[in-house]
Amino acid sequence: MAESRWLESPGLDRAAGEEFLQGAFQVLLDEAVRKGTDVSEKVCDWKEPQELRELLDLELRSAGEPPERLLERCRDVIRYSVKTGHPRFFNQLFSGLDPHALAGRLITEALNTSQYTYEMAPVFVLMEEVVLAELRGLVGWGGGDGIFCPGGSISNMFAMNVARFQRFPESPRRGGRALPRLALFASRESHYSVRKGAAFLGIGTDSVRLVATDERGKMIPEELDKEIRRAKAEGAEPFFVCATCGTTVLGAFDPLGSIADICQRHGLWFHVDAAWGGSALLSSKHRHLLAGIERADSVAWNPHKMLMVGLQCSAFLLRDSSGLLQRCHGAGATYLFQADKFYDVTYDTGDKTPQCGRRVDCLKLWLLWKAAGTEGLARRVERAFASTRYLVEEVKRRDGFQLVLEIVTNPAVTKADLDFFLDEVERLGWDL
Asked: Could you say which residues of the chain have pLDDT below 70?
């Protein structure tokens, strides 16, 4: 009887919930957005682990806490966290906080849908299709396929898996016994996800051949050709080459045209990890850095790195339009993907990925793109490059500095922020 009385009213107090959300949104706006992007505020109120653990009181207890205390906890979480949208947070993998993208992220969380079928996420299935088509168009393809992934590392792994499936269609069913000893190739400056992906897919890290780079960190095409020939001579079967546009440490762009020639000559899948540098395609001034990318079979591109989209927004793009992605990853679960639905089931995209539940990652980029336009996004990229040029000239001009690498990716950064950065380096250097 007691249980039945519980069911006579909602399990949550909606009025109290809305009141708490209003307070939480105000905390978000005041602490994370306003203070979190204010140059007069700290990037982080840093504490050592033990002190921070005590300040936050992280223990979970049997009784709940009142809203006022929870809002204080929200403030503490923000206070002691790193504000990656701060103009003086310098990291090549973050590019600031955009309000339109943030609004998209909040709407995504509020709707809490999963993007595997049209009936679950009708707006976002159509939206993702449009955004991915625009990204493919910037690569230089008139068609193709793709999907948003949980990060560039997964995009690179998807590329490896699709390339293996395309070469060995029996591999999903028969596993390793259907395969010869494989070899894949990436530069010594490539992202570690190439080796992790090889391990995860059962290809093995010993199968990853790292190709020599020049003094700027770019893959040397002649060395790639030598490594491919060496692998063949040793009895391995090459199948995959990963070039990089924007290496993590040096920001190098591999010579894609020459690498494409080699892949074509040897019949290998050509993947470009443009997770960081892909956004340069938006700029007519800088897209030459990725000349030849249109010849790739697949591309990884993370708009969350240079375009202020926010984590996570990672696109895996395919030139193939034959359904290769779905054939590689599909399982055809009948409780989700029935053939006799009341709409066109080609809009059910969930079988293109090993995931079942898949968060919506297209809305924040779509809303940002709608607000800024392609021209506005291009200006953000060009501003980031302009910041880099200014920083380089300042480093060259100042005594006691030696230029190691060029990377600035936050379009919100000003000259004053860059000057502050160099002044801090100099100040800290004198304290050593």
From this structure: 1-2, 404-406, 408-409
